[in-house]
Fold:
Amino acid sequence: MTIKEIAKLANVSLGTVDRVLHKRGKVSKETEERILAIIKKANYKPNMYARGLVLNKTYHIVAIIPSFKAGEYWEMPTQGILAAEKNLSQFGIKLTLLKFDQNSATSFEEKAKELLELKPDGVILAPVINFEAVKLTEKLKAANIPFNLIDSNLPDSGALSFIGQDAFQSGKLAAKLLCSETQKKGTIAIISVKKNENHNKTLQRRIEGFKDYLYTSKLINDITIVESNIHLSKNDWKKRLKEACNPNNDTIGVFVPSSLVHYVALHFTEDPQYFSKIKLVGNDLIPNNIKYLRSGVISYLIGQRPQTQGYLAMQNFYNHLILKQTPEEKRFLPLDIITQENLIYYDIEFSNIFNLA
Structure:
């Protein structure tokens, strides 16, 4: 159906239909509702490419994410964001990447200030520094700047959408996998390996889900749960990690609720005869983790599709700003179970899929 046909059915001018479609100019409520009803019934989709050419409008999106080194977790969401920018640039969408040091609240504050001065049309936010991120969302709302959250959710923040995994269910899945491999008495260690002191709600929710599964399992009377925090900034972190891996000399499984599981895996390789009996579960398909999954030191990795998170966050702004569609408030992505056996079927070279090379 064309705009001309919609105008004829609604008994209005082409200009009136255009004003309703583009939400500009004054149209009576009754007329607007009549036109929108016809559009909905006909499943009309405007030609957004033509609209972009006519309006010659640019939509500026700013992504504020943690800085990273090659092979680290945050490289993957960034790949997705850049892939989407490339595919959506024809519609006038342009991107600015602002990277902050996730070990420094001051670094985040500086980038947040820079972001607000840019006055973007939309923001992609990775709220890994929880308190500072909340303060930024309040300023974005005050400035009427829509924002999408990736990786970690901030409930009731007013975000356009959250895109990521259900962290609680991810933790439950990790516990189920570990229990399926350890049908004997002993200790299950939950080890949080940290590079900073920042509170990460996603990691906490994974731990909560993990314990929730264990508390209701048949193994609850046979196992002991021991939690440890290992801060890599401490001089004695290796000693503490060794103690955390085997606190009661009867460890049967270890869960690391982050992408830093490779630190534990490396420790396992230093005493392979003993640790070969212990099952290790962690998160994320980064190169260091893949190495230990491939060799069998890590039993399972749970993937959260970080490239897809970044891509969909950008695509949401195309849908919202150009198509005038309201995105899902929460977009939970599948929880991928990656093992030594199925690893070869996971294409981690996301950039190749979207021809970014």
User: Anything to note?
Assistant: Confidence is low (pLDDT under 50) at residues 350-357.
